[in-house]
Structures are given as structure tokens and as C-alpha cells.
Design brief:
- This protein is α/β, with parallel strands linked by helices and 206 residues long.
- It is 32% helix and 32% strand.
- Bound molecules: 1-O-pyrophosphono-5-O-phosphono-alpha-D-ribofuranose and uracil.
Length: 206
Amino acid sequence: MSTTVVDHPLVRHHLTDLRNVATASAAFRHLTRNLTSLLAFEATKELTEVRKTVQTPLCEASGFALDQRVALVPILRAGLGMVDPVLDLIPTAEVRHLGFYRNEETAQPVEYYNKLPLENPPDVALVLDPMLATGGSAIAACRTLQKWGVANLILLSILAAPEGIAAIEGEIPGLKLFVCAVDENLNEHKYIVPGLGDAGDRIFKT
Ligand code: PRP
Ligand code: URA
């Protein structure tokens, strides 16, 4: 598994505002979109291309087109806040939702939505979830995608805890993880510290 921390002044700037408890939901969503675009820019560097020729107003120009089938897989709910910026960059992508919530006592993921087909997997899945805490939800999502037959798994998370990275590394060895920052640890409630609180609640004002 590889972990890439996207090292960029814009990431640090927007992430600092995202963490701020004084940031209201509308701004939180906007910052989430900005950070997701920056993550996606890095995470899609290895998508493959084919040559393509177009006609400019002046002459023929040779260029490129993406040639892989890409699926975006937001983990409900908070991953929904990351879909639109990636779709803006890859408008041909399909979106496959997976629903997991963490049991509040055990912090174990509970699956509640999965309509993935059984065949014809995409070439690449970009799993979208802003928080990698214990890693339980992301591991469960990646296992589901592996069962579908997806060989190339990329996870975009805004924040990760070292515990979550260690857990997913052991379970999904081929994963490529892109994050804005790796925080200090998890607290006794399995929240990322310093973190940003509950991402789903802050995105959806609940
Ligand atoms: C949050 C977050 C991740 C998960 C991370 O979701 O969006 O999906 O927790 O924690 P883990 O790494 O320990 O599994 P939550 O269960 O709060 O659901 P929500 O997105 O509906 O708020
Ligand atoms: N889920 C969140 O939304 N925040 C955390 O810190 C951990 C899990």
C-alpha cells in the first residue's frame, strides 16, 4: 500500500479552516470540495490515456483522452460531500454509493446500502470518505469493491489517523491512499485528534 500526503500550501490553508469549529456548514462543504479537488488532482496522475486528434479553429491538434472506466465510490454519508468536485474533473465517471455507519459503542462499520452489480467492474475505483479513523469503514468498502472485481483501488480521505492507516495497510495491501494530513491519534471515542469533529454532521448540519 502507498500513502501520499498531498503537500501543498492550498491544502494546508483550506484544511486549517475546515478544522475550525467556527466554520459553518456552507463553508465546510465548500472547503471539502476544494480539498477534494486538490486530492483528486494528485490521485489521478496515473490514469491511462489514449491519443486523440481534434480540430482547433486553426488546424488539427493531437491530444489525449482518458481511456479507463472510473467509478467514484462515496461512503455515505460524508463521502457525498466529495463527489461533485471529482465528477467535475472526470465527468465520464460512474457513481456507486456504499452506505456504512459506525456503531457508536463499538466503532464497527455497519453496512446499510450496497447496490453494486455482481459483474463488469470498472478499471479504477476512487473511494471517497473524508475520514479514515479506525479504518473499519474504508476496509469494509474496499473489500466489497474487491469482491466486485475492482483491481485498482484509490482512497481519497481528507484526514487519516495513524491507527487507520496501519489497519488498512494490513487488510488492503494494493490500495493507494491520498490524504491532506495524517493527524496525531484517535481519542477514546475513536475520533481523530485534532481532527475536525464529525464530518457527516458538519457537512449536513445535523
Ligand atoms: C464517519 C466517516 C467515515 C467513518 C470513519 O462516518 O465519514 O465513514 O466515520 O471511521 P472509521 O475509519 O473508524 O470507520 P459515520 O459512521 O460517522 O457516518 P456518516 O458519514 O453518516 O456521518
Ligand atoms: N468520523 C468522523 O466523522 N470523524 C472522526 O474523527 C472519526 C470518524
